[in-house]
UniProtKB/TrEMBL annotation:
Name this protein carries in UniProt: Oxysterol-binding protein-related protein 10
Pfam families: Oxysterol_BP
GO cellular component entries: cytosol; membrane
Leader sequence residues: none
Organism: Phalacrocorax carbo
InterPro entries: OSBP_sf (IPR037239), Oxysterol-bd (IPR000648)
Organismal lineage: Eukaryota, Metazoa, Chordata, Craniata, Vertebrata
MF terms in GO: cholesterol binding
């Protein structure tokens, strides 16, 4: 995928994790797994995010580790670990740490243009009839 942050004139190129269907014979759930790479050529920063799948016995679900790197200097500026849908701990190269509980973050509603004003290939416009039928 590609994400443009126009106000910063930055372009981020990223991969996506795999999604695994679990417990399809009982109560099904989806688990993310694998490595995601994020790169911004303009800033010289990149990140590797690893989504860890739950071991067969024991272990936790939704675990993630990450590392942010400044490529020109080959310096790791931040490491993160925790649960992507729970508590994440960030450790910076200067020794500072920060903890974020995603469950306590405010919910911000998406701002979406009306479908009539969207381009023909924008997701909500393109899939509007399927969405309507599913509803």
């Amino acid at each position: 995928g590609v994400l443009y942050l126009m106000e910063h004139e930055e372009e981020y190129v990223f991969t996506l994790p795999s999604a695994y269907a679990r417990s399809i014979l009982t109560i099904p759930w989806v688990e993310l797994g694998g490595k995601v790479n994020i790169n911004c050529a303009r800033t010289g920063y990149s990140a590797t995010v690893t989504f860890h799948t739950k071991p067969f016995y024991g272990g936790k679900v939704h675990r993630v580790t990450a590392e942010v790197k400044h490529n020109p200097t080959n310096t790791i500026v931040c490491k993160a670990q925790g649960e992507w849908n729970g508590v994440l701990e960030f450790t910076y190269s200067n020794g500072e740490t920060k903890v974020i509980d995603t469950n306590k973050l405010p919910v911000i509603r998406k701002k979406i243009r009306p479908i009539a004003k969207q381009g023909p290939l924008e997701s909500r416009h393109l899939w509007q009839h399927v969405t309507s039928s599913l509803k």
